[in-house]
Amino acid sequence: MHALFEAQVRRAPDAVALVFEEQSISYGALNADANRLAHHLIGLGVRPDQPVAICVERSPAMVVGLLAILKAGGAYVPLDPAYPSERLRQLLDDAGPRLLLCDAAGRAALGAEAIADLSAVDLDAATAWADQSADDPDPHALGLTARNLAYVIYTSGSTGTPKGVMVEHAQIVRLFEATRSWYDFNERDVWCLFHSFSFDFSVWELWGALHCGGRLVLVPGHIARSAPDFYTLVCKSSATVLNQTPSGFKVLIEAERESGVRNQLRYLIFGGEALEPSSLKPWFERHCDHAPRLINMYGITETTVHVTYRLLNKSDTSSSCGPIGERIPDLRIYLLDGHGQPVPFGAVGELYIGGAGVARGYLNRPDLTAERFLADPFSGKAGARMYRSGDLAR
Known about the structure:
Low-confidence stretches: none
Helix content: 25-40%
Radius of gyration: 21 Å
Distance between the termini: 34 Å
Strand order of the largest sheet: 11-12-13-14-15
Strand content: 15-25%
Largest sheet: 5 strands, mixed
Structural class: alpha/beta
């Protein structure tokens, strides 16, 4: 995934990659900072498929840390210091990383006892690796391939037991390749990183911007919690791509109405939870269908962020259920009955997803992996797998 970012660095090193409050960082500077840290991590023994925890508050150092972990060959395990400390320690214990990247907020959230046995890298002390090379690490020398892990993001099931989903580089890269025909993301786009980096919607936001040379605006936590302030930032930053959960967008609709300021959005992309189309009525009363385009993308962490695409219009607001549209082209969708057989057209079945986005499985949970990540008997390809979602659809 980071190789796509490095390609943008070579194309336009002086272009702005990252904006946080009053600070702007170019692609070249961001890459150099990440490379120095990556070489430091390699020296500390980071290797492909090795989970590396990162517990930092939202800042440019967070993006530097994520890039550096990938460049060193590791898989990042994001721990948001805003989460309850007990949960963070539970995730840290399950992931079992030997190395932790943290800042003051991360150390406070985890507590001294939880990190006592870990090798910790303090991202507040960048001078410690300032003399490292600013050149891109060689992935071949590291033994890194697209089939190695890029991240482990935790999700909770109905029991509340954390499950670390293991996603490989190839599964992220193909997400953007497979959706290219629906979007024309480019270097002129401005994205907002609104969601926690412990939530996989952030994967789409972060790498969506950086893989195509766009500008990524990190939304400060206090602004993310205020819809009026966030809408002001959207307008002030000239954001063109905005990703929202449907519940989050409800309050943003009102903030946009009260503001009266026109935004420059091209796309509003929904994900993360079920969409009630009727909630969009106030928006469509003030806007046409295509300025900006509203898109619903049903998705699952276990199938790499997004599964389906549906361009929404005003007529959808009269629907009683949320339309999720069509599959991403390199995925397969099956609606199966209790015997694992396809249901008739129009009948309700459980949703199974096969194809290139299916994750490797759950970290340290072989039994649950075997239960949810199944052989795909319909694909005709040896070794093909499908994920049992537990969701019902028609």
